[in-house]
Amino acid sequence: MNKTLVISGHPNLDESLTNRIIINRLSDLEDVEIRDIISLYPDFKIDIEAEQKALLEADQVVLQFPFYWYSIPGIMKEWMDRVLAYGFAYGSTGDKLKGKPLIISTTIGGPEEAYQEGGYNNFRIEDLLLPLRQTAYLTGMPWQDPVVSHGMVYIPGVYNVKEEVEQKAKAHATRLIETLEQLELAQSTLV
Ligand SMILES: Cc1cc2nc3c(=O)[nH]c(=O)nc-3n(C[C@H](O)[C@H](O)[C@H](O)COP(=O)(O)O)c2cc1C
């Protein structure tokens, strides 16, 4: 199987409901390395060399995160700012990520219908993910259809039913794994 690197951007997986389920499911797979970056770098001091090494060894990269303020969590932004450096990820010699597919996998609190013109979140998720898509483009990482789930928040008595949210997280993990398998299949038929 292709080697998959999963960067987990949740700021506290111990307190997570949905990302924890997804990450646990992925951790059962062979050839998947999961880097829980807040546990590795609680002080936000990213080891750039170690992260770049993990990227170099990977065939494909998953960014797994909860959608925060229409974007990625702060620790994941710090990771991107530091690790996707000039000469590594972009620039005349910055071709180290070229050809490694990028899979965005995100859990979103708001319902799907809110993410459209006229909805209370006004923009579509694919629009809000454009900075990540452009990052993939600049770095030469083939962009894959993102794996997205809505209504992934559980607040007792306010939002959703816990068991249903857990079920959605399991279904999300299954879809993500299918995406990885399809990529593997597509690549094996290329050679
Ligand atoms: C700081 C913060 C910002 C959030 N911003 C958004 C947002 O912009 N849009 C949205 O739909 N949900 C938002 N949410 C809800 C999260 O997406 C949701 O809680 C998360 O996906 C659940 O993941 P977890 O169970 O792994 O913690 C936000 C939650 C937090 C804590």
How would you summarize this macromolecular structure in one to three sentences?
The protein is α/β, with parallel strands linked by helices and 191 residues long. The chain has helices at residues 18-27, 37-40, 48-57, 74-83, 125-128, 130-139, 162-190, and strands at residues 4-8, 32-36, 60-66, 102-107, 147-149.
Assign a percent range to the helix content.
40-55%
Bound ions, cofactors and other small molecules, one mention each? flavin mononucleotide
Instruction: Please count the beta strands (DSSP E, at least 2 residues each).
Output: 5
Largest sheet: 5 strands, parallel
Measured between the Cα atoms of the first and last residue, the distance is 14 Å
Low-confidence stretches: none
Protein topology:
Layout: E1 4-8, H1 18-27, E2 32-36, H2 37-40, H3 48-57, E3 60-66, H4 74-83, E4 102-107, H5 125-128, H6 130-139, E5 147-149, H7 162-190
Parallel strand pairs: 1-2, 1-3, 3-4, 4-5
The chain binds flavin mononucleotide.
The site of flavin mononucleotide has 16 residues, from α1.
List keywords for this structure.
191 residues; alpha/beta; binds flavin mononucleotide
